Amino acid sequence: xxxxxxxxxxxxxxxxxxxxKWLKKPGEKVQRDEPLFEISTDKVDAEIPSPAAGVLQEIKxxxxxxxxxxxxxxxIAADGEAAxxxxxxxxKAAPPEPKKEAAPAAAxxxxxxARSGSAHSRV
Length: 123
Known about the structure:
By secondary structure, this protein is an alpha+beta fold. 32% of the residues lie in helices and 32% in strands. The strands form 2 sheets. The protein has a 4-stranded antiparallel β-sheet, with helices on one face. Strands 5-4-2-7 form a 4-stranded antiparallel β-sheet, with no helix packed on it. It is elongated.
């Protein structure tokens, strides 16, 4: 079962933090308490340790993003769990391709509109 990586609360008045740098990439092995990412808040800059040993499975909050305290920013899977989730990642990349095909189809209706406009100018 994957372990959630949570944005920690670095002080009582801190409600959000900015992820300044991920020290590991998805697919890389991490040890428990090994620095995983860096954050910056209005009061402190800190390296955040990994909550578990395993493989960084997913980064849910990119570098430069500001997230609320207790938000899941990534997941760590045990070594055996990483393979099935990695297979699901390419499926997520597939939906943008049909959108590219939809753009030329949207351009096609604009041509008949132009023709009907020119027909009106002849009348």
